[in-house]
Amino acid sequence: MKQIMLQHGAKTIIEVCAAVKPGERLLIVTDLGRPLSVAHALALAGENVGALVTITIMKPVATGQEPPDPVTGAMLSADVIVAPVTGSLFHTQAAREATKTGARLLSLTEITEELLISGAILADFEAQGPRIERVRTMLTAANQVRVTAPGGTDLTMSLAGREGMKITALAREPGVRSAAPDLEAFIAPVEGTAEGVLVIDGSASNLGLIQSPIRMEIRAGRVVKISGGNQAREVEGRLASARHDGAYAVAELGIGLNPMGLLRGQIIEDEGVYGTAHVALGNNMHFLGGQNWAPIHFDYVFRDPTIALDGKVIMESGSLVESS
After folding, report:
1. Any residues with CB less than 8 A from the CB of 279 and at least 6 apart, and which?
2. Which of 17, 79, 187, 303 is deepest in the core (most CB within 10 A)?
3. Domain range enclosing 52
4. Is 208 exposed, middle or buried (0-12, 13-18, 19+ CB in 10 A)?
């Protein structure tokens, strides 16, 4: 019964999100930290449309860390890459090079069986496109953003000259990178301009749901102090293990826009949940205008944001202001 249920979500990923065609070389990249049942379900869905399917299995790597050379080589030979992995490949040089050669990539970071069965995967991805584009356009037009939230977040950042981007969960054209079932609009703030406090009370990359809020003090675009409970110490350790100053730089502001999404501890769904926002630290070199390199990219999700662009509120307590 579960395999039948997994096939529904796998079919959505393969046929709707990636639009895999007969004869295409479909590479499924997974690792030992993910359930193999997910990779098998995706492979079966690919075979059912007539794709030439290959599965590679590697040790888990951190988000933003490069995969092993044999995996990179396989990515460079694929037409479509679907990546149910523990640490996102979206932010890697391997992904950039593969998409430059015409491959399309769909990242399924931290995906579980449950995420193929319920929640964000049930969204009408095409129908959400216009709203995501509208928010992306507003981010592009703004010079300054202020983000506040009931948990204590109060951040300002410059967006001047930066172009908003979007994740639609669709990767149907050559060279496209996307993620599923994530739906969001996001932007790389101008480096060195973020100021204030970020309080994470939703979830975090490779950490799961937040049990006790994590507070980050941010000055001149960098995290200068982290406080909280045990999970705050884990965050400190992971940033320190990157052994690079760029790991502490504010890299992204994202706005979750998937109305079916559930906060349940897997970042590929959590960062796209409607009613949340997230700030990422680390690498943003593949973002439009992004200038910060780091060996990692970690997302930190918080609830019920109020977001003002150049003083105009576009989201209030987690709800878009539709007249904005």
Report:
1. 147, 155, 198, 250, 252, 253, 254, 299, 300, 302
2. 187
3. 2-117
4. middle
